[in-house]
Each structure stands twice: as structure tokens, then as C-alpha cells.
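W.,

You were right to be curious about this one. When I first looked at the sequence I had no strong expectations either way, so I just let the prediction run and decided to look at it fresh. Below is the sequence, 147 residues in total, followed by the output.
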Amino acid sequence: EESLMLLWRVFLLHPPSVMATLQQRLCVASNHAATSNYSISVHGLINVGTFSHTPDVDHMDEVTHLSCMDSLAMFVSSSQDGSLRVWNADNELLRVVHLNAQPQAVSFCSLLGSLMIAIKGHLYQIEHTSYLPKHLLQMLMSIRVPP
């Protein structure tokens, strides 16, 4: 414990279960089954502040994983509710991807934003063209990505 140093304090309604960093922000998932509260919040690390959204866009069951992609300023969450949710850096919901299974984990697997999903011991890929919003796809067309 003596090697730990308090960096920052943040108020969370429930303890964090999953965390990831996106640029200079901390993305936090809190799971509280007793109140059916499965929330995602984003907190500024340099410019301190919280980016929130209305609870109606949160997952309906436990958030299992978060993955961030700095170059597109977005992150993705996976949940036992069988969905992936794509958020921007301001914690605004961009897209919901409904799956026919419960993902255990999700990760970006290409510079273009394709996703790798772990489901029941298998890995699956979702191409960026099948889920990214049109404005992000247009932005990607102007970026040179090495082969």
C-alpha cells in the first residue's frame, strides 16, 4: 500500500468494475445488480469534469469490458445484455450493436476500428464498415492507414 499514490478523486454512485483510458479521459463502467444500474461514465483527467448521459441509453445488464480507440475518439462497451455500445469521448451513444450471444470481452483490432469479440471461448470480428456511423466512415476515408 505504501507504493500507492492518490492521483485523483472522482465521485461514483457505485464501485467501478471496468476502466479504460481514452485520450485524457477515464471511461468507467459500474455494475450494481441490486439496483439494476449498469452505467458508463467518462471523467476528464486533465480538465476535470464528468461527461454523462441519460440512463435510458445504458446497458441493461452487467458491463463486461471496455475498449478505447484514441484515433477515432471513441470507445466500445460489451455487456451480458447481448449488446455492444459505441460511445464518443463525450460519452454520447453513437451506435448499439445487438448480438445473439453474451460477449465476455471486446477490443479494437484494426486502425480502422474493426472489433474483436470474445463469446464462449471463440473470437469473432465485426468489420468497421458494418457498425461505424457514417460520419466516422467518411473521416476514415481521408486518413492514410498503412497496410
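Here's what jumped out at me. The helical segments are 134-141. And, maybe more interesting for your project: Residues 134-141 form the longest helix (8 residues).

Coffee later to discuss?

I.
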